[in-house]
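User: I'm putting together a teaching handout on how multi-component assemblies are represented. Below are the sequence lines for each component of a complex, exactly as they appear in our records. Could you produce the 3D structure of the whole assembly as structure tokens, so the students can see both representations side by side? Please keep the chain order the same as the input.
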Amino acid sequence: MSPVSQRNRETDSAQLPDDQPALVAVRDAGVVRNGRLIWEHVCVDVAAGEFVAILGPNGVGKSTLLKSILGLVPLTSGEIRLLGHAPGRANHQVGYLPQRRTFDASLRIRGRDVIRLGLDGHRWGIPLPGRRSRAAIARVDELIALVDAGAYADRPIGQLSGGEQQRLLIAQALARRPRLLLLDEPLDSLDLPNQAAVAALISRICRAEGVAVMMVAHDVNPILAYLDRVIYLGHGGAVSGIPAEVITSATLTALYGTPIEVLSTSDGRLVVVGQPEAPAHHSDRHGGQP
Amino acid sequence: MTTPTFTWNLIADLRDMWSLPFMVNAFRAGTIVAVLAAIIGWYMVLRRQSFAGHTLAVVGFPGAAAAIWLGLGAILGYFACCLAAALVIAALPSGARRGYREESAVIGAVQAYALAAGLLFIALYKGFLNGTSALLFGSFLGITTRQVTTLAVVTTVVLAVVAGIGRPLLFASIDPDIAAAHGVPTRDLGAAFLVMLAATAAEVGQITGALLVFALLVLPPATAQLITVRPGPSMAVSVVLAAATVWVALFVAYYSPYPLGFWLTSIAFGAYVATAGIAALNGWRRRRPQPVGARA
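Assistant: Of course. Below is the structure of the complete assembly, with chains in the same order as your input.
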């Protein structure tokens, strides 16, 4: 993708057309969990087909934002609309990839079966052979091709590398043809070449399938080239816009109320210095029960 | 009982065995229990709830001993105590999902106390000492037709429930977070599974004894999961292995002076070790250098 087209797209999405309804609308939302304020006064809009990153220091509640969009964490103030519905009412149109490390190495289930569960794993009863079953098998094959997982989709998922597992889980999240993908640190625990490859894959799917992506990221650099917008989250609110406007010393200093410096390296990577690390709340990270 | 003589004519041997009503009941009960254990155990291995399964089985021992002491019959004791224990475990905070690592000390303490309580009930009953070994390590003697009927009814009910919830249960077992986001009631399914596991442990305990339930509940499913990674065939292999284990063990135990529990466990363990050995050998062969496929 050339830098020029990249800039054009950023400009387009910066001025969202008014007639396009937002997939996700977060209005002055706040969450308090166990007596601790996670964040408040957060306003976020995501339009169809946008690729948006959610950034911020550890413990600021990035995963909580995804979970509250899904209705897994209740809001204590404000409102969230997902596809025009209250949270939890339209989850079948959302693909969700929670934060995780990896599957247990001894798990004896194929990647193909994991994808299939994303398609019809929520249904009761035994999957009987028939038209629906054939369609499901065809859809799973299609998804395996989409994420280039043909070489390892029939092996036990626990024995695959982190990058291979992540591709299969992205395929699983896409199984029901969602309009929105919520990805929680999908590049976490991947090596650098795999980070780049999975980031490119997510971007390609976002464009090809017309799926909007909200992706929690610890490091913006692997996805910087693909992003339409970033949302920087702080305890007192969120700032969103194109990366060049949001990831600046002035914006982040204002958001966090503490001096923050954004440095740009010669190869275009951004380094944020001095952002406050919230006190560690490890119990909430890595897939704790919402 | 006269000592039966083994001939190499296996059909004649079986016919000889099945002329005895208690052996017919033993084969019936063993097969019913094997099928149930193979299916529920398959999920248990996948969910890594072996520790809970063992606890439920051990709790069956004081249940059965107390029921015998009170004159209520062992069967009632097994089911009542195992199901009650399952409800307690399910009610523990975060019990059904990921709490076992933290609660292992609690569960271990409950296991120890259950064994101790069982010994107390046996001491209270007096003159029951021959039955202790049967309650702990299994026996194929004295299985009544009524007991076979009870086992069959419970197995049918549990398997019908598995047919209904098996797919979401599989989803919730592999990936509870994503399953929950797909609207699968993971917590309720976890509790339902514990109840089914308790019914299974109560059934298996009646054949293998409280301490050897894993001969049927863990070994055949674990072996099957090594043999194939496809869920359906894997469950089928698990059923075949469990039933074969029971049949061979009953056959051997009939002619040998050694107890059924030993044979059941040895056969199932032998099959597991052999399969794991072959799998390890295949894995070692596969790890030799190979050309790396093209990556995206």
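A couple of points students might notice: Chain B has one domain: 10-286. Chain B touches chain A at residues 46, 48, 94, 97-98, 163-168, 170-171, 174-175, 177-184, 225-226, 229-231, 234, 293, 295-296 (CB under 8 Å).
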